[in-house]
Automatic annotation (TrEMBL):
Name of the protein described by the UniProt record: Cob(I)yrinic acid a,c-diamide adenosyltransferase
Record has Transferase as a keyword: yes
Source organism superkingdom: Bacteria
Keyword vocabulary terms for this entry: Transferase
Length: 206
């Protein structure tokens, strides 16, 4: 079968045309214990930016002190859009940098409250169709820890309006998320330099 073609046996009897199916929103999950979950999500976001989509990135675990390479690049791409109209607008929100999390270490109760508030804001944006493409980076963890209700997330994603794409990253994705997702990729670790004591490197980890 040629690359990009759909097996005729798998074409759904949904009354939609090929063009209409191509416009359906995608829910993608990158999970598993292998490296590359966030990297793959940001690669998708880069394609979306190039198509002029409005990008919203929301990081649930990384510290405000950790400047990941993608953050710098996407903020510059947002500036490029503002200056020239090329690509699409970009918003980047993460822990301790103007988002809902505390800038100081807190108790589990504090983190749980802040994560719930963060999800409530994303939910509001989904209902208002504020972005075209969302990256919810490391969002599986507050769900796994019980800070965000998986059933609420799954229901919100399944019933969101418009053509908003959502990509979620993190280990141990909840089965409820898997059920509502259209695209699920599990990254499997075979080898990792850190297994033999090597430290993270510029250009590789950040």
């Amino acid at each position: 079968m040629a690359q990009g073609q759909v097996d005729p046996k798998n074409i759904p009897d949904d009354g939609l045309t090929t063009r209409q199916r191509r416009q359906l929103p995608i829910t993608a999950i990158h999970t598993g214990h292998g490296k590359g979950k966030s990297t793959a999500a940001f690669g998708m976001a880069l394609r979306a930016w190039n198509q002029g989509l409005n990008i919203g990135v929301f990081q649930f675990v990384k510290s405000a002190k950790w400047k990941v390479g993608e953050e710098t690049v996407f903020k510059r791409l947002g500036e490029l859009h503002a200056d020239t109209g090329e690509g699409g607008p970009v918003q980047w929100h993460k822990m301790g940098e103007g988002w809902s999390w505390s800038r100081k270490k807190g108790s589990d109760e504090d983190h749980a409250r802040d994560a719930a508030e963060g999800w409530a804001e994303i939910k509001r944006r989904l209902l208002a169709e504020e972005h075209d493409f969302y990256v919810l980076d490391e969002f599986t963890y507050p769900i796994k820890w019980g800070w965000v209700d998986a059933a609420d997330v799954a229901d919100t994603l399944a019933n969101r309006p418009g053509r908003q794409h959502v990509v979620i990253t993190g280990r141990d994705a909840d089965p409820k998320l898997i059920d509502v997702a259209d695209l699920v990729t599990e990254m499997t670790k075979v080898k990792h330099p850190m297994d033999v004591g090597r430290k993270g490197q510029k250009g590789i980890e950040w």
